[in-house]
């Protein structure tokens, strides 16, 4: 197997997707931020001292998806047609699920994954005064569809 992001000499390159067909593409990624019981109680009740952590994290996740090609060097800029950031406070974590959609020549997986990571980092920023031990974990692609390779599910 060869890596498409390396040329014949092994140097990094951005893959030329000019000849690829434009297709509808969807990717869903997930992750979690493990937090203390105190943070869970605050998120379910009066909120953390910095404000509405869930709302701020959701907006940050959308912004993160939009900025993916600025952050990941070999990612193509794709036209984001939709990003949904869902957060659920469980007894031990904030569960994050992101679905990103486009109609373009290349996949949208990195936008979904970047959104999860930025959402998680924002949760940590919002809760760190209460729980400096909060940690992002399990960032992963759950499913993707569209393009030449078709559907994939974890």
TrEMBL record:
Reaction catalysis annotation: (8S)-3',8-cyclo-7,8-dihydroguanosine 5'-triphosphate = cyclic pyranopterin phosphate + diphosphate
Pathway field: Cofactor biosynthesis; molybdopterin biosynthesis
Keyword flag Lyase: yes
GO molecular function: cyclic pyranopterin monophosphate synthase activity
Matches recorded under InterPro entries: MoaC (IPR023045), MoaC_bact/euk (IPR047594), MoaC_sf (IPR036522), MoCo_biosynth_MoaA/MoaC (IPR050105), Mopterin_CF_biosynth-C_dom (IPR002820)
Binding residue positions for substrate: 74-76, 110-111
Active site: 125
Ranges for domain Molybdopterin cofactor biosynthesis C (MoaC): 14-147
Pfam families associated with the record: MoaC
Keywords of the record: Lyase, Molybdenum cofactor biosynthesis
EC number(s) per entry: 4.6.1.17
HAMAP family named among the record's database cross-references: MoaC_B
Subunit structure: Homohexamer; trimer of dimers.
Role, per record: Catalyzes the conversion of (8S)-3',8-cyclo-7,8-dihydroguanosine 5'-triphosphate to cyclic pyranopterin monophosphate (cPMP).
Family: Belongs to the MoaC family.
Descriptive protein name: Cyclic pyranopterin monophosphate synthase
